UniProtKB/TrEMBL annotation, chain A:
UniProt keyword annotations, A-Z: Signal
Lineage top rank: taxon: Bacteria
Record's keyword annotation contains Acetylation: no
SUPFAM superfamilies linked: Periplasmic binding protein-like I
Signal peptide extent: 1-24
Record's keyword annotation contains Electron transport: no
All residue ranges annotated as the Leucine-binding protein domain in the record: 52-396
Protein name: Branched-chain amino acid ABC transporter substrate-binding protein
A Pfam match: Peripla_BP_6
TrEMBL record, chain B:
Molecular function terms from GO: branched-chain amino acid transmembrane transporter activity
UniProt superkingdom: Bacteria
Region (Disordered) location: 381-401
Species classification: Bacteria, Bacillati, Actinomycetota, Actinomycetes, Pseudonocardiales
Name of the protein described by the UniProt record: Branched-chain amino acid ABC transporter permease
Pfam families linked to this entry: BPD_transp_2
Gene Ontology cellular component annotations, sorted alphabetically: plasma membrane
Compartments where located: Cell membrane
This protein's UniProt keywords: Cell membrane, Membrane, Transmembrane, Transmembrane helix
PANTHER family named among the record's database cross-references: ABC TRANSPORTER PERMEASE PROTEIN, HIGH-AFFINITY BRANCHED-CHAIN AMINO ACID TRANSPORT SYSTEM PERMEASE
Residue spans crossing the bilayer: 29-50, 56-75, 82-100, 112-136, 143-160, 206-225, 255-276, 288-307, 314-336, 342-365
Gene name as annotated: livM
C-alpha cells in the first residue's frame, strides 16, 4: 500500500516532468490541403504516384465469407492484370493492397488506418458490419469505396460506389419473374424469412413493396444469422398457405429451408437473394432439395453464357486452379471495371485526387461491363445505379451450381420502386 | 473450473510487511514511472504514420478496463460471470442515448447531455443494472452463476434488436457522440496541436482519454482490493460462513461486487463506442462486439492474467485483445504469413492458436496466471517474501503490494 502510494506519487512527478517536456515541444500544424500536380499535369494526393495507382481491398479470406472473399479478391486481381497488360490507366500501373479482416469490425477498424495512407480508394470493402464501422472514416478521408454488400440503406454516403443492384430490387424483380412464370398470382400469401440486420431488412423492403403493388400478404419470419434449423418456420408457413417462400438468409439457412420445403411436401418455389446460395451446398445432404431455389442477382452466374463472363471465369480457373468456383470472381472483376471507368474519367478531368475520383463517379451515366452487370448510372446520388437482375436456378451439373434461366431484365415494379435515399 | 474460481483458504504464514526491501520498492517505482512515460509518449513514438498501432493500443486499454472489472468479480469476490458483453452494450448504448444529439434523427432518442456527464451516467446506469441482477448473483455460485449470467448476453441481443430507438437497430446502428471536455473536442481539427512534430488529432486525443480512463480504473481497483472492501470480497469468496461470523454482510458484499464490476464494464462499453465511432447491436449471439465470443475473451483475460490480480488483467488484455491485431498489422507491414492466400496459417488463425495455447498452458502449469509468474520473479530478490510465497500460489494475494 505504501509502495503503491509512493509509486503513485513518483508517477505524478514523472507525469509533470513529461508534460513540461511535451509543452516545450508543442506547436501547431495544419496539413496542407489540396493535391500536388503529378505526371501528365494530373492533380494527385493519396495513393497515386507518377507510375502507379494503388487501390485497397478490405476483404475476408479467413472468416465466414472466405470462399466468396477469395473469389472477389481473385476477380479484382484479374482485372488489375488485364489493365496493366493493356498499359495501365493514365500512364500508371494498378497496384492492389489486400487486407484480411476476417469479417470482424474491430479488426477492420485497426487495419484501416494502416491501409488508408497508401491507397486512393477501395476496390472492394466486404461485409456490412465492417462497412458500418468504417463509414465515419470513409467520409472523413473522402474515400471512394466499392462495397461487397448490396443494401440500399448505405447509399446516403456519396463515397459508396454500389456495383450492381440492391437486395430490395433483387427481390422485387425476382417476385416479378415468378409471377410472369405463373408461379405466383395477385392476392397470394408469400413467406419471407430474413436475417435481422442490414441485409435482411433491405431484402424485406423489396417484398413489402411488391406485396403492396399486387395485394400479396407477407408471412414474415425474422431469424438471426446463427439459427440453423428453419423447419419450424417453414412448417408455420405451410399452415399459412404460402405460394412462394422468399429467403434473405445465409447459405446454411437456405439449405435448411429448402430441405424442409421438400420434406413437408410443400414444394413451393423459393426465391433467394444473391448471397443465399453457395456452390458448397451441393455437397451437403440438402443437395437433392435445392432445385426449387431461384437466385436473383445483379451479376452473371459463374456458368453464364455471357462471353465476358466466360472469359473471366476461364482465366480464373487457369490462374487459381483448385480454388472455389463462385460468383465472387465476376463480381470482383466488375468492381474493377467500374473503378477503371472512374479513373479514366478522373484522368480526363485532370484530377486523380480523392475528391477528383469522387466527382468523376457522379459524371458516369453509362458504365458498360459487357453484361457482367447491367449498365450502371451513378449520376443520381442515393439511387441504385441499376435495377436489372439475372435469375438463375440451382443445377448441380452447371459450374458454380447455378444455371441462368432469365437474362438481364428489369420488371416494371423494379422501375417504379423508390429506394430509401433516392431523390425522386 | 470451480477449483480455480474458489481457491483454498489463505496460507498459514502471515503476509510480509509491505517494506520487503527498500531497493525493490525503488526498482518498482522506477519501472512504473518509465512505463507511464512510455505510454504518455506513445503517440510520439509511433508517429502520425503509426496510427494503426495507436488504435491497437487503445483496444488493449478497453480490454484492460473490462478485464479489471471482471477480475475483481471472478477472482476477488469468487463470482463467475459471463455477462460482461451485456454491460458493455448497456454502457455503449447508455452513452449514445445520454449524449446523443436530439436533433440527429426522429427515430432515435438522444438527451443531448454533455459527454462527460453521459459517461458518468452510463457507468451509473450499468451499476444499477448490475444491482438489479444482484438477487440472482446472491443466490447462485460457481458454474450455475456463470450460466445464469450468460442469459444476460441473450437478453442484450434481443433488447438491442427490438429497442432500436435507443440502440439504432442492427442495420446501421447509431453514431457514437464525439467526446468533449470543457469545449475541447476529441475529434480531428485544423490546425491541430503538435507534440514533438506529431499532430495530436482524434486518435492521439482518444489515446490520452483512454489512458486516463484506464489509469483511473487501475488505481481504483487496486485501492478497492487493498482496502476493507477487498478483504470482505476475499472473505466471502473463501468461506461465506466464516465471513458472516466476522461481521461481513454476505448478500450486500456479493451485490456490491457485481455492481462495481458492471460499472467497469460500462466504462469499457463507452470506450468501445468511442473506439468504433459506432453503437450497433449485434446481428447474432456468437460473433460481434457484444457477443459470447467477447464474454469468453474477457474470461480468458482474467485467467491468463491470474484470477484476482489487477496488473494481471492488464497483461491478459494485452495478450487476448492485442495479439491478433498485432499479428494482422505485422502481416500487413512486414509480409508475415504472406503465402496464406486461401486459408492455411493466416494471422487470424495463428493468433487464435497462441491465445488458446496460452489458456491451456496457464491452467496446466501456472493456475495463478501471469500474476503468479510475476510474483515469483519479484520475490526471488527478497528471501522473506519467498518463504511467505512458498505455500499456495493459486491464491491471489493482492493484499500485499
Amino acid at each position: 500500500m505504501i509502495a503503491a502510494r509512493r509509486a503513485g506519487r513518483s508517477a505524478l512527478i514523472a507525469g509533470a516532468l513529461t508534460s513540461t517536456l511535451v509543452l516545450a515541444a508543442c506547436g501547431s500544424t495544419a496539413d496542407t490541403a489540396g493535391g500536388t500536380a503529378g505526371a501528365g499535369g494530373v492533380i494527385t494526393d493519396v495513393g497515386v504516384t507518377d507510375t502507379t495507382i494503388t487501390l485497397g481491398i478490405m476483404g475476408d479470406t479467413s472468416g465466414v465469407f472466405k470462399n466468396l472473399g477469395a473469389g472477389l479478391n481473385a476477380g479484382n486481381q484479374l482485372w488489375a492484370d488485364d489493365v496493366n497488360a493493356a498499359g495501365g490507366i493514365c500512364g500508371r500501373q494498378i497496384e492492389i493492397e489486400v487486407v484480411d479482416h476476417g469479417y470482424k469490425a474491430d479488426v477492420a477498424k485497426t487495419l484501416y488506418p494502416q491501409l488508408e495512407p497508401n491507397v486512393l480508394g477501395m476496390v472492394q470493402l466486404l461485409g456490412s458490419p465492417v462497412l458500418a464501422a468504417l463509414e465515419p472514416n470513409l467520409i472523413e478521408d473522402n474515400m471512394l469505396a466499392a462495397p461487397a454488400s448490396w443494401s440500399s440503406e448505405v447509399l446516403d454516403n456519396p463515397g459508396i460506389m454500389m456495383i450492381g443492384t440492391t437486395y430490395d430490387l433483387e427481390i422485387i424483380n425476382g417476385l416479378a419473374y415468378l409471377q410472369q412464370q405463373g408461379l405466383l398470382a395477385d392476392g397470394d400469401t408469400i413467406g419471407h424469412i430474413y436475417i435481422d440486420g442490414e441485409y435482411g431488412g433491405n431484402g424485406l423492403k423489396g417484398s413489402q413493396y411488391y406485396a403492396q403493388q399486387h395485394g400479396l400478404t407477407i408471412n414474415e419470419a425474422k431469424v438471426t444469422s446463427t439459427d440453423n434449423d428453419l423447419t419450424g418456420i417453414v412448417t408455420g408457413m405451410r399452415g399459412a398457405g404460402v405460394k412462394v417462400i422468399v429467403l434473405t438468409t445465409t447459405p446454411g439457412q437456405t439449405a435448411s429451408a429448402l430441405a424442409a420445403n421438400q420434406a413437408l411436401g410443400l414444394n413451393v418455389p423459393v426465391l433467394g437473394n444473391n448471397p443465399t446460395f453457395d456452390p458448397a451446398l451441393l455437397e451437403t445432404p440438402a443437395a437433392g432439395a435445392l432445385g426449387n431455389l431461384y437466385v436473383s442477382a445483379s451479376n452473371a452466374p459463374f456458368s453464364s453464357p455471357n462471353p465476358k463472363a466466360v472469359e473471366v471465369t476461364t482465366r480464373y480457373k487457369e490462374a487459381y486452379p483448385d480454388s472455389p468456383l463462385n460468383a465472387g470472381v465476376t463480381t470482383g472483376y466488375t468492381e474493377g471495371v467500374v473503378w477503371q471507368n472512374v479513373l479514366e474519367a478522373a484522368c480526363e478531368a485532370g484530377d486523380l485526387s480523392r475528391a477528383g475520383v469522387k466527382t468523376a463517379l457522379t459524371t458516369l451515366t453509362e458504365v458498360d461491363s459487357e453484361g457482367l452487370v447491367d449498365v450502371l448510372d451513378y449520376s443520381s446520388p442515393g439511387a441504385p445505379p441499376t435495377r436489372g437482375v439475372y435469375i438463375a436456378q440451382v443445377d448441380a451439373t452447371a459450374e458454380g451450381g447455378l444455371r441462368e434461366v432469365a437474362p438481364l431484365f428489369t420488371s416494371p415494379e423494379g422501375e417504379s420502386y423508390v429506394a430509401p435515399f433516392q431523390e425522386s | 473450473m470451480s477449483e480455480t474460481m474458489t481457491p483454498p483458504a489463505a496460507p498459514a504464514t502471515a503476509p510480509p510487511a509491505p517494506t520487503a526491501g527498500a531497493g525493490r520498492n525503488w526498482l518498482k517505482i522506477a519501472a512504473a514511472a518509465a512505463l507511464i512515460v512510455v505510454l504518455l509518449l506513445l503517440p510520439v513514438l509511433v508517429g502520425n504514420g503509426g496510427v494503426a498501432y495507436l488504435k491497437l493500443a487503445q483496444y488493449i486499454l478497453i480490454g484492460a478496463v473490462g478485464g479489471i472489472g471482471l477480475t475483481l468479480l471472478v477472482g476477488q469476490a469468487g463470482q463467475l460471470s459471463l455477462a460482461h458483453p451485456f454491460f458493455l452494450l448497456v454502457g455503449a448504448v447508455g452513452y449514445a442515448v445520454l449524449a446523443g444529439d436530439p436533433e440527429e434523427s426522429a427515430d432515435l432518442v438522444g438527451l443531448g447531455l454533455p459527454p462527460l456527464v453521459a459517461v458518468i451516467g452510463a457507468i451509473v446506469l450499468c451499476g444499477l443494472v448490475g444491482l438489479a441482477f444482484a438477487p440472482v448473483a446472491g443466490r447462485l455460485r460457481g458454474i450455475y452463476l456463470g450460466v445464469a449470467s450468460l442469459s444476460l448476453v441473450f437478453l442484450g441481443l434481443w433488447l438491442g434488436q427490438s429497442l432500436d430507438m435507443f440502440s439504432g437497430g442492427t442495420s446501421s446502428g447509431r453514431n457514437a457522440p464525439v467526446f468533449e471536455l470543457f469545449g475541447f473536442e476529441f475529434a480531428n481539427s485544423q490546425p491541430a496541436p503538435t507534440i514533438a512534430g506529431v499532430a495530436i488529432q482524434k486518435q492521439q486525443r482518444l489515446w490520452y482519454l483512454f489512458l486516463a480512463f484506464a489509469l483511473m480504473s487501475y488505481f481504483l481497483a487496486r485501492g478497492a482490493v487493498n482496502s476493507r472492501i477487498g478483504r470482505s470480497w476475499r472473505a466471502v469468496r473463501d468461506n461465506e460462513a466464516a465471513a458472516t461470523s466476522m461481521g461481513v454482510n454476505v448478500t450486500r458484499v456479493k451485490a456490491g461486487a457485481f455492481v462495481i464490476s458492471s460499472a467497469f464494464a460500462g466504462l469499457a462499453g463507452v470506450m468501445t463506442a468511442l473506439w468504433l465511432d459506432l453503437v450497433k447491436p449485434d446481428e447474432n449471439e456468437f460473433t460481434g462486439t457484444y457477443s459470447l465470443t467477447v464474454a469468453i475473451a474477457f474470461l480468458a483475460v482474467v485467467i491468463i492474467g491470474g484470477l484476482g490480480s489487477v496488473p494481471g488483467a492488464v497483461v491478459g488484455a494485452t495478450i487476448v485483445f492485442g495479439l491478433q491485431q498485432f499479428f494482422l498489422l505485422g502481416s500487413q507491414q512486414f509480409g508475415w504469413f504472406a503465402d496464406a492466400q486461401f486459408g492455411g496459417f493466416s494471422a487470424v488463425v495463428v493468433s487464435a492458436f497462441v491465445y488458446g495455447a496460452a489458456i491451456v498452458l496457464v491452467i496446466l502449469f501456472e493456475p495463478g496466471g501471469i500474476a503468479a509468474i510475476g510474483r515469483r520473479l519479484t520475490s526471488r530478490r527478497s528471501p522473506d517474501a519467498r518463504s511467505a510465497n512458498g505455500g499456495d500460489r493459486t491464491t491471489p494475494r493482492e493484499d500485499r503490494t
